Amino acid sequence: MTYSKIIGTGSYLPAKALTNYDLEKMVDTSHDWIVTRSGIVERHFAADNELTSDLALQASRRAIEAAGIKADEIDLIIVATTSPDMPFPSTACILQDKLGIRNGGAAFDMQAVCGGFVFALNTADLYIKGGQAKTVLVVGAEVLSRMLDWNDRTTCVLFGDGAGAVVLRASDKPGIVASKLHSDGQHRNMLKADPKVSMDGKAVFKFAVTVLSEVVEEVLEEQKMAGTDIDWLVPHQANIRIIEATAKKLGLGMDNVVVTVANHGNTSAASIPLALDTAVRDGRIKAGQNILLEAVGGGFTWGAVLIKW
Ligand code: UT7
C-alpha cells in the first residue's frame, strides 16, 4: 500500500508584527478583549511589496530544506489560499516559477478558506495514492490583511498573514491514514469576503465547535481509535476557545494540543502548517505519533486529517 508521508515542514511569518496594543491605537478595542475572546496576542502583516507567493516561497524553501530534497523533485504543488496574488495565474504556478522548478509538474491553487490546508493535504494524498505524483509540496499561504475592514472591530483584530508548507512523499510506511472533508454552501453568508471580511462571530463559533467535533469523531471511528489515542491535535488556529472546546469534546487535555494562535492570529489556510512546523521543529511531534489536523472555514468547509508521523 502506498501512503503519503510528510518528510519536511516549513513556515514563515512576515517581519511586521502588530500587538493588540498596536491595534488599540487603530480601532476601538483592547488587549484584554482580544486575548480573552480569541487568545490572540499579536499578528503579522505582509509588507506592501510582499505577496502571498512570497510568503509561500519562504515557507516552501524551509520545508524543502527540511525534507532534504531538490525543488526539482516536486512533481505537484498545491497552494491553499483565499488571498491569491491575483485572479490568475494561480499562486501555485507563480510559486513553481519562484522555486525555479522547470520539470513540467502540475501546480494549482485550492480555495477552501480556513479549511484549505486539510483540503489540499487530502488532495495531495489522493494524487500520491493514485500514482499520479510522488513528491508533493502543499502550502497554506495568506495575506488576509488586505481584505480586512478596519471599520469592523469584530473582525479586523482577529486575522493575520503567514505561510506554512509541507513536502509529502510516496512511502510504503504509514503517513496520512485517514481524511474526511465536508462543505455546506447554505452557510456561505456567515463568513465571507465581499470584498472585505465580514462574519457572524457567534454563529461561526457554534457551527465550528459542532462540525469539528463531528468530523474528528468520523475519522476516529473509521480508524477504531479514541480521542485519547491522539498524541497531538493540530487544529486550525482561529480562536483559543474553539480549540479548547474541541479538545474537551475529544477528551484531550491542552497538553496534547498545539496552540500558536497567540503569535499569529487567524491566518486561514496557513494556520495549520504554521502550528505543525512549530511543533515539529521544537521536537514535540515525533516519529510514530498520531497527529490529528482539523479545520473549519468559510463556505462553509471543514475537515480532518489523521497522520501517523
Ligand atoms: O476560521 C473561522 C473563523 N472565525 C472564527 O473562528 C471566529 C468565531 N467567533 C469568535 O471567535 C467569537 O465569536 C468572536 C471572537 C468573534 C467574538 O467573541 P464573542 O464572545 O462572541 O463576542 P460578541 O461578538 O458577543 O461581542 C461581545 C461584545 C459586544 O459588545 P456588547 O454588545 O456586549 O456591548 C461587542 O460589541 O464585545 C464587543 N466587541 C468588541 N470589543 C472590543 C466586538 N468586537 C470587539 C473588539 N474590541 N474588537
Structure description:
The protein is α/β, with parallel strands linked by helices and 309 residues long. The protein has two domains: 3-171, Peroxisomal Thiolase, Chain A, domain 1; 176-308, Thiolase/Chalcone synthase (Peroxisomal Thiolase, Chain A, domain 1). It has helices spanning 20-24, 31-38, 52-67, 91-98, 116-129, 153-156, 201-222, 240-250, 261-264, 271-281; strands spanning 3-12, 16-19, 42-45, 76-80, 106-110, 135-142, 162-171, 176-183, 191-193, 197-199, 232-235, 290-297, 301-308. The chain has a five-stranded mixed β-sheet with strand order 1-7-6-4-5, with helices on both faces. Helix 3 (52-67) packs across helix 4 and helix 7 (201-222) runs parallel beside helix 8 (240-250). It is globular and about 55 Å long. The chain binds oxa(dethia)-CoA.
Name the helicity range. Answer: 25-40%
Strand percentage lies at: 25-35%
Order of helices and strands: EEHHEHEHEHEHEEEEHEHHHEE
What shape does the CA trace take?
A: globular
- The side-by-side strand order for the widest beta sheet comes to 1-7-6-4-5
Distance between the termini: 16 Å
Structural class: alpha/beta
* Bound ions, cofactors and other small molecules, one mention each: oxa(dethia)-CoA
